[in-house]
């Protein structure tokens, strides 16, 4: 994998280079200190991956991404973002413009600590892209992955009794949610509970962005909110979200409970509470993302008789979380992204109007 590192900080270019040097099969072909120079080197070196700073002189990261849209062969892009309101807003915009994912810039005082933090965040994403490149080149051994059959895997699909829809999503999620939520009608009669793997601040920016483009109300969830139809509640980054019963109503509870399988917020954590509070009157959707968060939660939901939907491989940015749900035999339906809004709308046909 040929990589171009773009950052206006000499120190941070070194941190990224030192981190990527620990990943076998990665070649650093060039570095650039501003967006204009980055575009010149992209055209010259044709990298497979660009690590791209958001804030840079001459052309910033967003402007570089816009220019990349005009290129016939575009590299994958991982954004390097600061944990600020402005950084979160720019990152949300970058993901809309086709960036693969983002990582937070380390703010450690020691160089080795910054490298360790970046290694934890960046290298798993790079390895996913390496595997994608190997598949494109036809160099993945046949025995490495079991084939996944995209059909109905367990019983008939009848979402009509669902009174709530839970969605778990990670890498590729912001763009996927931006594709699905704006297609939903304003009078949607089920609420959506969403876990998108993101750090603090970023989920607030994502919620505001999705709310502007959607007919339903999209918000970052807060403790004590009554769960109402026609609303989408996104778990805040760095917290856990669950459903509780309070005074005869279903409410949201935001906690600081530990991460589960390194995820906070965690899909499994939300889905467990949905199983306990809604029984069989819940539906779970697992969309694009790395890892297996959501599989254990779906297993519990299935025991309660709930419907489970997984996004099909072709429309996923990363076919990790949905693959695990399908491979475990938990998916009642495997659906492309462009039909996911229809699945959500179908949940309201019988039971949704009673959802309070």
DSSP strand count: 14
Distance between the termini: 51 Å
Number of domains: 2
Largest sheet: 7 strands, parallel
CATH superfamily annotation of the largest domain: Methylesterase CheB, C-terminal domain
Helix content estimate: 25-40%
Task: Please tally the helical runs, counting DSSP H or I stretches of 4 or more residues.
Answer: 11
| Poorly predicted spans | 150-155, 349-356
Q: Globular, elongated, flat, extended or rod-shaped: what is the shape?
A: globular
> Mean pLDDT, nearest integer?
90
The name CATH uses for the topology of the largest domain is Rossmann fold
Overall structural class, as computed from helix and strand content, comes to alpha/beta
The arrangement of helices and strands along the chain is: EHEHEHEHEHEHEHEEEEHEHEHEH
Strand content: 15-25%
As laid out across the biggest beta sheet, the strand order is: 8-9-7-6-12-13-14
CATH architecture of the largest domain: 3-Layer(aba) Sandwich
The top-level CATH class of the largest domain is Alpha Beta
Radius of gyration: 21 Å
């Amino acid at each position: 994998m040929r990589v171009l590192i773009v950052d206006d900080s000499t120190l941070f270019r070194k941190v990224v280079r030192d981190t990527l040097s620990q990943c076998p099969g990665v070649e650093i072909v060039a570095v650039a200190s501003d967006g204009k120079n980055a575009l010149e080197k992209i055209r010259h070196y044709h990298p497979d991956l660009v690590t791209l700073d958001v804030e840079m002189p001459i052309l910033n990261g967003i402007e570089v991404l816009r220019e990349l849209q005009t290129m016939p062969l575009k590299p994958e892009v991982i954004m390097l973002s600061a944990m600020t309101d402005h950084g979160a807003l720019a990152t949300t915009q970058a993901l809309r413009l086709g960036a693969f994912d983002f990582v937070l810039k380390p703010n450690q005082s020691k160089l080795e600590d910054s490298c360790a933090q970046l290694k934890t965040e960046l290298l798993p994403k790079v390895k996913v892209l390496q595997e994608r490149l190997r598949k494109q080149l036809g160099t993945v051994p046949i025995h490495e992955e079991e084939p996944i059959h995209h059909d109905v895997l367990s019983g008939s699909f009848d979402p009509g009794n669902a009174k709530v829809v839970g969605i778990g999503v990670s890498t590729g999620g912001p763009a996927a949610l931006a594709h699905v939520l704006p297609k939903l009608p304003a009078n949607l009669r089920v609420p959506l509970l969403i876990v998108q793997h993101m750090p603090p601040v970023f989920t607030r920016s994502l919620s505001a962005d999705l709310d502007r483009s959607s007919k339903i109300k999209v918000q970052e969830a807060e403790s004590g909110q009554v769960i109402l139809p026609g609303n989408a509640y996104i778990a805040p980054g760095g917290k856990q979200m669950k459903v509780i019963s309070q005074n005869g109503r279903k409410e949201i509870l935001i906690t600081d409970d530990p991460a589960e399988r390194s995820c906070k917020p965690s899909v499994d954590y939300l889905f467990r509470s949905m199983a306990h509070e809604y029984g069989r009157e819940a539906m779970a959707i697992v969309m694009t993302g790395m890892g297996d968060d959501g599989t254990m939660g779906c297993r519990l939901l299935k025991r309660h008789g709930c419907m489970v939907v997984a996004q099909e491989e072709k429309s996923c940015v990363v076919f990790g979380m949905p693959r695990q749900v399908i491979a475990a035999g938990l998916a009642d339906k495997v659906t492309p992204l462009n039909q996911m809004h229809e699945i959500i709308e179908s949940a309201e046909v019988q039971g949704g109007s009673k959802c309070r």
